[in-house]
């Protein structure tokens, strides 16, 4: 597994990097089948250290955890505990959904846009009905089953996930509803 351990305006020493690699390796080997790489970023927020970790699995799933503490090692330990809890929680589902998948998840390219919000007075008419594009980026749309898409969304902690349905080859959306349930849009 490849590790990328970095700090945002923080110098990360060799001892911390070694500690992160051994601890994450133990967690991942215990609960995940085929991890490909891990990205760990340390930063500061006022008087606390923040640790953000993302582990990419060959099945296409990403597990993400974030924690903070007054000590940098404690921040990482809290983050590792959250990651372990996520992977332990989904171990059974990961095995059930992915044990027969011989190839990694197929990804399709797409464009992603960020549109400017228009805060105007209630009576003011907009000059144009076309939105202002603030940023344009490339993104990837995975080809997943509905169950895998829900699992990917929950592991990433995202409110919504756009995916290509393997069963129907159409673009679908799963999202977290306000009542806590999961919604699925299948056009």
UniProtKB/TrEMBL annotation:
Coiled-coil annotated residue ranges, if any: 73-100
| Cellular localization per UniProt | Cytoplasm
Q: Gene3D superfamilies under this entry?
A: Ribosome hibernation promotion factor-like, Sigma 54 modulation/S30EA ribosomal protein, C-terminal domain
What is a single cellular component term in the Gene Ontology annotation? cytosolic small ribosomal subunit
Q: Name one GO biological process term.
A: negative regulation of translational elongation
Mind listing the UniProt keywords for this protein, alphabetically? Coiled coil, Cytoplasm, Ribonucleoprotein, Ribosomal protein, Translation regulation
Residue ranges spanning the membrane: these are none
- Every copy of the Sigma 54 modulation/S30EA ribosomal protein C-terminal domain together lies at 130-183
Family of this protein: Belongs to the HPF/YfiA ribosome-associated protein family. Long HPF subfamily.
Subunit notes for this chain?
Associates exclusively with 100S ribosomes, which are dimers of 70S ribosomes. Interacts with 100S ribosomes.
Name of this protein: Ribosome hibernation promoting factor
Encoding gene (name):
hpf
